[in-house]
Each structure stands twice: as C-alpha cells, then as structure tokens.
Write a structure and sequence with these properties.
The chain is α/β, with parallel strands linked by helices. It contains 14 helices and eleven strands.
Length: about 325
C-alpha cells in the first residue's frame, strides 16, 4: 500500500511537468508565472497577476484551463460592469409567471478576471466575496460554487486613468501577487516567429482531471514541515509588523502595515507545494524564501516616505529574509 502511494505521488509529479510542457506549446517562457498559477490551483489560493499588456497573461490562463480540462470563463472588467453581470440575477419568466435564476459566468472552475482594477468597488467586492466564501447569493438563495474554484485576476500597473485600485483588505484575499516581467531576448524572438506565422495553431491535450487535482492537493497537504520552519514563517510575518524588534530600524521607517495572518497560512501552503513540485516530502528553508516575495509583496503596505525615497516592497522583504534567522 505504501509503494502504491509513492507511485501515485510520482505519477502526479510527472503529470505536473506534462502540464507545464503542454502550456509551453502555446506560451513561450513565463515558466515562473505558470508555476505560481499551479501552486494557486493545488493549494486553493487565488492569484493576482500584475504586468504591462502583451505579456501573455490571458493566453497563459486560457491555455492552462484547456490543459487542466476545467470549465473556464474570461471576464473583461469594464467601468460599466455590474455585479449581476458576474454572479447572475433573477429574471421573470412570463410563461411560468415566476422569477427564475440566471446564473452568471462565475459558476465555473477557473475565472480570469481581466483588468480587475477597471471596474468599480461593487463588482470587485462581488468577485472577492465569492473567492472568500466559495458561494454566491442570488435573490434569497445561496449557491455553492463548483470545486475546484480558482480566480486569476490581472491588473495593469501602468495605467491610472479610468481604474479603481483594489483596497488593501481585498487584495489580501489573493494568495499571491505575481509580477509578470518582459520575456528574455531569445524568448521574444520565438514569440515573434510564432505569432507572425498566421498558420500557427498549437493543439494542447488535457493532462489532469478534477480527481487528479484533488489528489495532488492531498499529496501537498501531506508534505511535512518542521516546527522550526513553522516558527520561521511566524518570525518572518512578525518582522513585517514590528521590524524594530528584528534590528530592521531603517525598514521600520517605511512600513505602515505589516502582513496579515493570511500571509502565515499561505507561506506554509505555498512552501509545501514548492517542495512537492521538487519531488520532496518535506519543506526546506529555501522553499519558504522562494515564495516569500509573491506571498508578502501585496500584504506589506509602505508609507509615503518609502515612495519618496524609492524604496520598494521587494527591498523590505529582502531585508527581512536577510535579518530573520531560522528558529531552532
């Protein structure tokens, strides 16, 4: 039975590699973004992708949904979007002389909320409530969302005109905020060659089923993390709240709010996923450090002095990782 369990884990780890390979048939590069999206999927965490237009954010999520064989809905957020356009509404059926529920596009496994910061607070709140509660209420009836349910939102950090920035409390509901960067020269050369070939049409094959996803979640949950590393995660989070207690006096002058308890939870979950992807049954300190930037960068709020001095959240996180020792 033990050997069957090991074989099962190895089979799933190989399938994860196949998923990355299949997505690579369409998307050039962006392995980092794909890795973070998969971590979110397998740990029930929603992902916020931030990057300038044209970096294949939408294409990557769309392709990933095909490879995972999940129900997928893309929502283009616009200033005139209404909550009912997202979750659904009650409509009157004249033949039956009664109101019926018309479910919205949120009733899918994977939701791509494209340019989420282009819609006003009411729409953002409707989506984020569904993310948190895994359910929506239409009329007087509450409906559970299908499992797995994953929201991948994108926002453009450059444009400010006609945008509604997400409040910090709502951004905190995303497991990770992933900065998507420009491709390398050789990658952009390949992108140019593919996309300038009008006959290019890569067909991807489904690799995982819903049952596989749930089993992988169980495998990740079984990854061991030592008590010393659990304490290390707590120390990292507390260092963001009370930096002066960790000999981070310079950084303390720039931090307005530290990370919430969701940071501790998500650092633990994401580190387990990194270990599982690397085919290990235990978490290493490097796993926590690898994921720290993405889990913490939207949870540590800096003040105006930081902006004036050109200090970024990533600089603060690097300083915390450098100063905080691993507990024994």
């Amino acid at each position: 039975m033990e050997q069957a369990s090991i074989d099962n884990k190895k089979g799933h780890q190989q399938k994860i590699k196949q998923v990355v390979s299949e997505v690579g048939k369409v998307v050039v590069g962006q392995e980092y973004m794909i890795n973070r999206l998969l971590i979110g999927l397998f740990t029930q965490g929603h992902i916020l992708l931030e990057g300038v237009p044209g970096l294949a954010k939408t294409l990557t999520v769309n392709t990933l949904a095909d490879v995972l064989h999940l129900d997928f809905q893309r929502l283009q957020f616009t200033p005139d979007l209404l909550p009912a356009d997202l979750i659904g509404t009650m409509i009157y059926n004249q033949q039956k002389s009664a109101f019926e529920v018309k479910k919205g596009p949120i009733f899918a496994n994977m939701i791509l909320a494209d340019e989420i910061n282009r819609s006003p607070a009411k729409v953002q709140s409707a989506l984020l409530e569904a993310m948190q509660e895994k359910q929506v209420t239409i009329g007087e009836t509450t409906y559970k969302l299908d499992k797995p349910f994953l929201v991948m939102a994108t926002q453009n950090p450059v444009e400010q005109e006609g945008t509604y920035p997400l409040p910090e409390a709502q951004v905190d509901r995303f497991m990770m905020k992933v900065h998507v960067d420009y491709p390398q020269k050789h990658e952009e050369l390949e992108i140019m060659r593919r996309m300038s070939n009008m006959t290019f049409d890569a067909n991807v094959q489904p690799v995982l089923t819903k049952e596989d996803i749930f089993e992988i979640r169980n495998n990740i949950n079984a990854v061991k993390i030592s008590e010393s590393l659990e304490k290390y995660i707590i120390e990292l989070v507390f260092a963001s709240r009370s930096p002066q207690d960790y000999k981070l006096a310079d950084e303390a002058a720039y931090i307005m709010f530290g990370a919430s308890p969701r940071a501790s939870i998500n650092l633990n979950l994401a580190a387990k996923a990194v270990a599982f992807f690397d085919e290990r049954e235990y978490v290493l300190p490097e796993d926590i450090k690898e994921i720290a930037q993405d889990v913490l960068n939207h949870r540590i709020i800096l003040n105006y002095e930081a902006e004036a001095d050109g200090v970024k959240t990533s600089d603060i996180i690097d300083a915390i990782l450098h100063k905080v020792p691993i507990s024994k």
